[in-house]
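Check the record.
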Amino acid sequence: MKIFKLNILAIFACLFLFTSNGYCITTEEMTKEQAKQAREDIVEYSKRFIGVPYVVGGISMDGIDCSGLLYTVSHEAIGIQLPRTVSAMYDSMSIVPISQLEPGDAIFFKTVGNEISHVGLYIGKNQFIHSISDGPNTGVICSSLNQTTWHNEFAAVGQFLPPTKDPTTLSSDHENLSFSNKQKTTNYSYLDNISFDAFGSLLWNFLSYNQMKFNLRGADLETHVMYNGLSNSSIIPGFGIRYRFDPGMNIFQMPIFFSVSIENQLRIYAGPVITFGTPVIPGSDEEVSASVFPGIIGVAWQSPDWDVGSLKMCFVQDFAWTVFNNAESGAALPIFESVCTGLTFSTGFRVTLPLSKFIN
């Protein structure tokens, strides 16, 4: 009778741990074929979450964090109940060399100090899926282990499913996965690190010829790309072109500039300016000369992003100084005229989209 009760309990335990994919969750008893299928299932299921926003503590399609992603996909795809936090996941798994990495393994990173603080799911071909809170692309995304940031912060490989291949075979499979700074970054890695943004705004200042008043000068349209692959992810270099319609000065200008963005909140930029037309001081017919170089220097502040589908949108306030000189002598203008012509404010909105959205 006692044996019968134990058998009944074992059957119910197995049924409780059974998933829709047919796994009875005893990973130690999995055959290689079952383990291979489980790895394929969790990889495919994780791809459904790409684009889900980052939410601290989230475990659903409405929002999810890095450990919540692995916790959710492992439970829903193959019925394995992992710990909920990154550190607990790390402690619960078998840590193996990078040469034994297989699709379906966990990849751990040290993104804050020397502690394990981030986790992703390896999906093959040096790519992994994870949920991130910082950078131009947040939420659940696919990244490359060859990206500078993840290359430098990689900590360990964790296995919670049995291996399916011989370690010698795995080693040869991953000969191209090098943690040397000489390793070429893949095309996908570059696309994953490059973001495109566009900025539309009204151009204004508070000065015109010999008087102080609000002065709507025209409009700006800016296109810009930035690279987020530096190991210090708070510093983001970029390059942009602005199209400035300034009927207040009877000109059209094209500033071409290099930029540095700091934590996606502040952007500093400078570069030459190409001018079409003959500029005049706003509110007068007095001509001035537009300088090519030095051309423009500016600072733009942006609000926190909000998601609009696959786009990110923010409010931007831009402050810029464009150089104009005396039309006859080429000398610097008097201070009032210099401020009147050169100091401008651009108020508008910026939308950002990963460059991979245009390619894939």
Remarks:
- The chain is about 25% helix and 40% strand.
- Residues 127 and 144 are 4 Å apart (CA to CA).
- The domain at 194-359 is CATH 2.40.160.20 (Porin).
